[in-house]
Amino acid sequence: MKNSPASRKEELRALLRDLGKKVYTDLDQKKFPQVEFPSRSVRNIVYDKELKQYILGEGKVTRSAGNIKHIRPFTQLLWLAFFANQLTTQVKTSTLRDVFYSSQAFDIEFTDQSESDEIITDLEAVLTRPRENFNIYPEERSAIFGDLTIEYTVPGYEGRTLNLSSHPDGYLIGPSLSTAEFRDTSAEMIIAIEKGGLFTRFVEEKVHSRFKSIIIDTSGQAPRSTRYMLRRLSRELRLPVYILTDGDVYGEHIAMVIISGSVGAAHLRELTVPDAKWIGVWGSDIVKYKLPTIPMTEIDIKRIYELKKDPRYKGGIWQRELDVFLKLKRKSELEAFSKYGLTTITDKYLPEKLEEAKSL
């Protein structure tokens, strides 16, 4: 399968080999080896109207062993490429923190983890692949539940299958799940929820069977492994993705990051779900459903004005709902529906919003 985890891993190993060959070729030709990759400076981040996301422009950065100022980051970058090759070849995983400490065994000096994190992002830009593809993950985890049978590809579990509706707490979206093959599902949609408590409520109320859905807890701002999983589910299973968040400016931004990515990941294209739909909680829903609210802070209001300047929020529900939030100067949470009964959100709100989404 062209887009299978196995094929993606082989593509990555080929890219790492090419990087290594280039360095050796430069040395054989008695040239200082160098690496060129897209600049991630703010000046080189541009908004692509067709892709509807931020991408990197034409600016380039060159790291050369011939420049004394570049030797440290150049060496760090090459060591990281070597380490990434070890991880993928040996089918091992590492956390961002592990990378920082692992470097010390090779006398590679990172001042702190923020410096090693920065070099990891540089390697992403060089390879145009997310760090998860070379088996480096953050600590954060979210969860998934629903009728989806997966087949593990990690060593020791190859060929084993598991249905993700078999555990009432759902399954953590970690390395083994992110790299599994999707085998069978009866689901017709994906519902991503910002809150773990509501994720549990949706499982209890059998939303997965009532709405033929796979449910994902994003745990607030979705970790990149979760965004990657959402993209895989959308692309490989051809399922629509619907996003539920708290009724505030931060919830709106959580949805936008899933749909169009973030400025910090402008160098990547594999973390977005452009066809996903944010179905609420909208500011207008707060009024329509007479939800309990709390006042916005000055920071909340400042954030609204910031997003109103962001080209991703121009027009459509995005700008409209920012204007509603600004007018209300109040915010609400998904749990606020419990004022009308614990199952109101699944019995009334969700079906109405899914119906409304057909016209978005």
Number of helices: 13
Helix fraction by DSSP (H/I, runs of at least 4):
40-55%
Describe the main β-sheet briefly.
6 strands, mixed
Measure the end-to-end span. Answer: 33 Å
List the domain count as a whole number: 2
Q: Look at the structure and give the mean pLDDT.
A: 92
Strand share of the residues? 15-25%
Shape: globular
**Secondary-structure arrangement, i.e. CATH architecture of the largest domain:** 3-Layer(aba) Sandwich
Radius of gyration: 22 Å
Give the SSE order as H and E letters.
Answer: HEEEEHEHHEEEEEHEEHHEHEHEHEHHEH
Strand tally? 17
- Uncertain residue ranges: none
Structural class: alpha/beta
Query: What is the CATH third-level topology name of the largest domain?
Result: Dna Topoisomerase Vi A Subunit, Chain: A, domain 2
Descriptive account of the structure:
The longest helix has 24 residues, at 5-28. With 360 residues, the protein is an alpha/beta fold. The model has no long low-confidence stretch (mean pLDDT 92). The protein has 2 domains: 5-137, Orthogonal Bundle (Arc Repressor Mutant, subunit A); 143-359, Dna Topoisomerase Vi A Subunit, Chain: A, domain 2. Helices cover 42% and strands 17% of the residues.
